[in-house]
Please model this.
Amino acid sequence: MTDVQGQDRDFGPSDDPWAVLRDATRARVALGRAGDGLPTSRELEFRAAHAAARDAVHTALDPDRVRTALTEAGVGLDVLEVHSQAPDRTTYLQRPDLGRRLAPDTRLPGGTHDLALVLADGLSPRAVHEHAAGTVAAVLARLPGWSVAPLVLAHQARVALGDPVGEALGAGIVVVLVGERPGLSSADSLGLYLTHGPRPGRADSERNCISNVRPPHGLGYAQAADTLAGLLQASRQLGASGVVLKDEGTTLPPGAG
Amino acid sequence: MTVRRTTLGGHTHEFRSLTEVLAKATPARSGDVLAGVAAESQAQRVAAQHVLADVPLATFLTEPVVGYDEDDVTRLILDTHDPAAFAPVSALTVGEFRDWLLARAAERDEAAISGLARGLTPEMAAAVSKVMRNADLVAVARRTRVVTGLRSTLGLPGRLASRLQPNHPTDDAVGVTAAILDGLLHGSGDAVIGINPATDSPAQTIALLELVDAVISRYEIPTQSCVLAHVTTTLRALEAGAPVDLVFQSVAGTQAGNRGFGVTLDLLAEARAGALELRRGTVGDNVTYFETGQGSALSADAHHGVDGPVDQQTLECRAYGVARHFDPLLVNTVVGFIGPEYLYDGKQVIRAGLEDHFCGKLLGLPMGVDVCYTNHTDVDGDDTDVLTLLLGAAGCSFVIAVPGSDDVMLHYQSLSFTDVLTARSVLDLRPAPEFEAWLTTMDLLDDAGHVRELTPEAPAARALLAAARP
Model:
């Protein structure tokens, strides 16, 4: 049967000649017809996938859930919370500029750290709920000797909110773990964005991105953490991030900021 | 800079520039709020529409919203303006122009409306659209005729074509082929079989061009292919002797916006010349394809004019001013793709889709629409149904269709192949004539001209499915 994300679709008996098309691609080919429309089952299957994606966007970030998951994953860092200048989801979606700035009353403890990790709800809080703790644990395990700032959980946040957060914490590098825009079959993808020398005004070309962390369908925690640890080491050595590191990762996709 | 004012309900509204009048007169959308140019109240919006309605069309020839000296799009628009084509409406104001268009549409005087194209600037089209309702946009676009061709003829009355978009996350040849066959079996693909490549490399582009060319040749399909790579990549493919039917490029309404896309007008001209030399057309020689979308200039911080930021719909029309210079086969706005910070919900997407289609047609473009949405906009299939049926009524040249509405590479939803069947059926529209004849040859149409629902044993299905077998 079909799950709500449209995964693992059961296309019927293997002697179905349409299976030639279906086996060739994940695209929704050979769905059949009801007159000029789609059969009811296919139509409802599509609506279920869209509903899951819509709900993933509009779910509120649940700090308790993330804290519990972090504890269970063995992450012992303190967890702080910040809000962007977008007061609610409706504003957040229409004003990306507000999602990049910290709320005026924000207080963060200054210090000197090699790294700060920001868990940002982005366009899929669900991705943070499900994959942030596992990713953070795997990343920290690969960075012995690095001083890491308290974790920051960020509400109504875009990637660039990591710039003022990282600057306030006194971090040499900030990594923002952010819920990516949900697709029909991927409502829970986490993206990791690395920025060296975080401060407001950093350009997207100064960031590196690892996308689609979403085991078991997407990238696994260990694989993502291996790539990120490599980028972090290279970024620290080079004293920069972004296109200069491009050979070892990927730069920011358009519209992600 | 001319200050314009009007009194509405006892309150005087003042506008400092033509740019501000255009922005404040624009029906509400999130992108103009983001840019800080939207009307601050409903009353101010209507006041701006009153002021705009009284602006003579000729004013747009002398008061450019983006500077002539600093912007090559403005120079292109003004330097190629055709006074003879403008003559029938040159004495009218924006409001009088709306009335003129509605009168000609009611008389079904397609020649009068369509003949204006080169005499109108994008800003004139944008201006009149801002004082038109959705039904006005449909009624006039329906009587604006723009016919283009390469191996199929597009834009004829009573026709609705579709771009078959068989994208695949890794450009897998078998996966792409399966989606092409699914589309052909649904009667899609008469506008173009157009792939967004997963990676913008010359080698990948050439491989995809050869793949689609092989399918088109094998079944002798009267349509064209396109790989929507960057124009510089297509130039490399042309140099390598690849079968390039169409040169594709996203374009914007300002020089800075086009710089953001990595293109210049010269580059577009060079690529067009390269594709023309191949002489791959049978019924026409339109060899370019452009995509646009409201908000693209703002997203590149390329939306500034002489009197401050310009509204996104006026800039979108200026992108049409770029496109029409290169005699395109196809132009489409990607209306719901860019996100809720530009068009927030179904109402805004429907309005923008109708504006873009109307303005593109009025300016002489073979206008299509990618009726689409992302999962973070407040849009669903009910909204896309409304826009699709309105566009069908408006005589839209083509729409974009993907298997089951789900683009598995770009992660957004466009129309499904069945949505195209529904629009054709409800509005009594047919595919491009050459493609319709091919569908008949393949036994894919029933006696009433509708695309049959095939069993796998049907000869057409067997023939086409053979191509997908590894």
Summary: Strands of chain A lie at 79-83, 113-120, 151-155, 171-179, 190-196, 207-213, 250-251. The CA atoms of residues 204 and 255 of chain A lie 9 Å apart. Residues 40-58 of chain A form the longest helix (19 residues).
